[in-house]
Amino acid sequence: MKMQAESKLQAANERLRKQSEACQHIARIRSERFGIGKPQGQENPLAATLHKTVTLLSEALYQKESHFILELIQNAEDNTYPENHSRYMNFFLMRGDPLVNESSRETGNWETDNDAADYTLVVINNEVGFLSQHVDALCSAGSSTKKSSLKGSNYIGEMGIGFKSVFMVSRRPCIISNGYCFRFDEEPDADINLGYIVPYWIEKLNLSFRKKLKSLEDNTCILLPLKKGRFNYVQRQLEEILPETILFLQKLDKLLVCDQTGLKQQPEDNAMAVTREILGNGIIRLRSRKKSEVYYFLFKGEFPVFENVLEEKRHGVKTWTITLAFPLDGLPNASHSIFSFLPTEVESGWPFLVNADFVLVASRETFHVNRSWNQGILACMVETFVHGYLALQASEDALSRLPSKYSILSFIPTFSHFAALEPFRQDMVKKLSSLEVVPVSSIYHSKQSPVITDQTGAVSGESCKMQFCSADKARFVDKQFLEIVYEAKAEGLSLPGPLAYVSNIYVVDDIVKEKHYEQLRCLGVGHLNIQEYAACVLDREWCLRLSDRLYVKLLRFLMQGFTADQQIIYLEKPFVRVYREDMSIDLSCCTLKYPVYFPQSDSEKWLFEQVHSLQHLAPIQILPESIYQLIRAEADGKQLLNWLQHTVHVNELTVQSYAQQLLQAIQSNNDIKSVFKVTEFLRLALDKKLLSLGEAVDLKSLPIVSETKLVIHRKPKNLKKTLLLPRSGSEWPLLLDDADPRNKLFIKLSPLYMENWLPNVSVKGFAWQQHLHNVQPSVEDWQARIAFLRHHFGAKDLLDIDPHPTWALLAVEKGLSSKQASLLIKWIAKLCACKSEATGPRGHTNSATECTQLQSSVFMKTLKANAWLPTTHGYKKPEQTFIRTPALDAAFGDLLPYIAPEAIPDEKELFVALQFLGLKQEVSVGNILEILKKSFSEPATKTNLVTVERLFKYLQNNIHEHQTEFLFLIWVPKGVCNHSDASWLVPSDCIWDDPSSLFQGKHAILSRIYDRSLEGWFKRLGVVLEPGVDLYLNKWLEICQTSLTTEKLVSEVSQVVAEKIWSKIALHVDAVRQQKGKLENSNHNIKLPTTLISSLTMMLNGDDHEAEKEDQSSTFKERCQEDNPTLLLKSANEVFISDDLYLEKVFTDKYPALPLAWQPPSLGSKEIQSLHLLYKELGALSLSEATRMCMIEPVSLSSSSLYHDVDLVPFLAKPLFLVIMGFLSSSLTGGSQYQDRREILLPLMQSEELNVPKIEVNYQLYGCSESNQPKLMVEVYGSKAAYWNREKKVLYRTSHLPKAANQGILHHFCASAVAQQKHPNPCM
After folding, report:
1. Is the pLDDT reported for residue 545 higher than 80?
2. What is the model's pTM?
């Protein structure tokens, strides 16, 4: 006892000593720091402190009132505690004010304040107590004893203003600890005008508080007299303290909240205690007197701080420690799921808590999202979550505390309340989705079929460890189908198809799907797709082994679980049970192609007879009787039977159903007889009214047989072609030429459609199997077949055809007979009438489009491009023809080609058809230049031909000349002028029409792009209507240049090409001469085309052997007989112009290789003459000029050989002169004609006539050598009827001709002889 008394005495003395030192310390602070009691005039040492206080308090102190409790808990966590002691913190709510004595309250007096507190919050912490440095820190702002230590030294406070938050609820907070007993005041001190941080020593506390604190003398006690109106708020904040508040603290492990005000009606509501216990294996238990127990699984991750992360407030910290807490009893109780040791105001929305050393704002409400320090923590948090989730999944102890094992999925975050956290949530889920975290159905690890017994997820059957798979291998499966699989497995069946163990696809139990669908979808778990369902259903062994009951359930699932489009996937596969011919049960091959029939089918005799003949094509399959009866017994049996009938195509065996089967079977059959038999069956069934058409039986899918015996399956691409009735008795052969390549737009039906292919009911013994199709039908049967083909095949005759836009009527181009023309006009009339009727009185968009398409089609263009319509000016194109109206007649009279009156039919439809062809009547006005300007400034791909045509047509009819001064561009489509896309061209790059088809590579041929009615418009824009002669000349020079570079021994050119070019040149020789410079530059390279016979002989004139020459001759003759023969090219100085047919025959008979200049056969005499002159200018020689002819006189031409016949009629008279002038007229041109005639006729008139028995002449043809010297090419000997020696002025005549009967022939010979002497050889 004595020792105890001494000990108590020593303790009392120690307390007095501490209290004395503490009192002196407070006095020094007041004097030295704040200058209280010093003489006036001295420098105020509070300047810096005061500034810092005002700044920090204004920024952080008054942001939110609730922070003061967390600040007090934070200070308690940072305190130092005795070893081996429980560390706790208690909050008591008491009545009264510790600074007001009871007597003072009764009298209403107090030395400093008349507004005493009604309630006080007492905070008790069993730490070791305040030291002097702690008090110094409280008496300043922004200072803390924790700053000198690293942040990692178990300190969670950092701002130095945490305690100041108590001023939110208390005006005079008091601190009692380790001998200290002082308070602060919110009101400024009278001496220095500063509050909050000026300490005041407390001499005496209220008696009731002294009694309360006497038992707590070794603890730190903070007394907070509450401001008026703050009690309810503080009471509510204390009640809302969650157990999770101390979850992440390292020191405090107990909190106690006690209300001793006596205001609570229920005693159990007066106190609340929270304790924290570590159970091991990462599990923490939080106990609360009110909320019983809460378990958490904690996972901690440590990561080195990133090298590029610098944070002043964390200087020296090298490691990030991130802790996640997974609540094992459901969602976390804390509403603020982001902790920085204590809860912040950040709500992540995640189903777990996150604790890390975030850099917070001063008020602790949130953290700085964009700080690199916090970003680094959040990045590491992703890895922490993934590893923590896997650790939890592997912890049997933790999983056993969950409501169910698959409840672990509830920890997968599906959304973020705080937007800045969403990217990190997505990263967590993404990384987790590739790992095995999805619970696999117990069907994979249970010996028995699992059956869900309650909503917790408990299942019957053998318990075993849960398996997991990755999200890409997991599947949601329809509950109805899953039940079938479960029951099938209970009956001993294996899992079907892709659900088998080896398929790497795992089922997610339905209860897991219901509870955690959102989490699983976030992971990427998908539904079993239709292909996978089909693979299960189409597992042959599994489907066949199902009991009848489960098979009916499977049919119900297929009916209810999929859309019609999805059902197609398995409808085409074997899944329907059927009886085979041997009565064994199997699965049908394809229910669409080989439909199954109900067992009670009862068909008529006629159908069976036809089925017998078609069994090889469409065999019958029957649904088992047991399945059928089970379906009928079900409550939804009618619905299921209806589905089987209309979707799966299980039907009664009727004409209707069998016709459907035949149509399906014939789709893949190319046998002509089978197609005819099916067609005949359908025709007879329709004729007997046993068949109705619709979606199930659609004859549009029936294959057809063409005239060439080709089976055509009418697919969408084939449906674009028009079906024509069989040839016999049809009108289409009149206008549709069989040789026309455009006949590919039609399919001509086989004439075999008009023959019999199936037996008649009256035929006995199936004699129909003999070739009954050879029997020709009667007239009535023939008409019925035609009607069938028209109605059900859509087969047409000419008047029914709606011509394809790209089709041109070749018969029009060849010319029509009267019968053909009559039929054509009738056809056009019907087309126009159909379009007009479809359009209706108010018009219809689709019909108007059809009319436009017909108008712009190649078919109509062909009709418009050919002159077949009779007019007042002869046959004209439709677009060149006008309908005579009073207005046009008054304006133009007969100048316009009006349609002939007799050509205008009386029928209104025919008149409309003629209008539709483009006959003109009137014109309108408008202005659209701005639209075109905008189009020109944009890429050509933004517009199209139809739009540009419409604009140009409108302008063509309305624009004035002065409005076309700005630059017009012309739109051309892709591929024109080798452009890779549509483009705009200037008019100089365009040509309206290229009849020769020679210039389409370098120029845009607008007539092939635009409607022909725009020809005048493009001409106004400066577009050349046709290529000029300069282009043709350039084209020929290119051909000549190409012939020089080719490796062929002989240069060739197509006769068609040569005719196009030289016909043009012949018509514009003068224009060609104007390009003299171009011709001179290329004169040494220019070549001329030679005639076919010349080409042949050129090939025979080489050094080849005779056999080789014969082969070459035969080959070239064959080439010359082609539709487009070739001509050989020769240099101009090697070519002769055939201006004398007699000389041509003389020389070519002797020398077939003579190179004669070729001339287009279509040219007239005037153009040929011009062309010959051009050939001469280019260096060619004419035969008449290059030929020297002389008569071979006898050795002695005596007078005896000459004789004068007294009856000789003189030829040198006017008749002969006229004939000679005719010979000369083809070679005399220009103003020199008169002089040339005079020079020839004058010597002739001065000549005498001699009659000789025989005249032999020598013909010598001279050409020019490379040195331009005369070179003898050919020498021929022959005889003549007459010869004129110009030098001797003698006309020799043969005497063996009759004297009178052949005067005209002799005139001809004489004239020819004179004409051949008109010019000397230019080379001699």
Report:
1. yes
2. 0.50
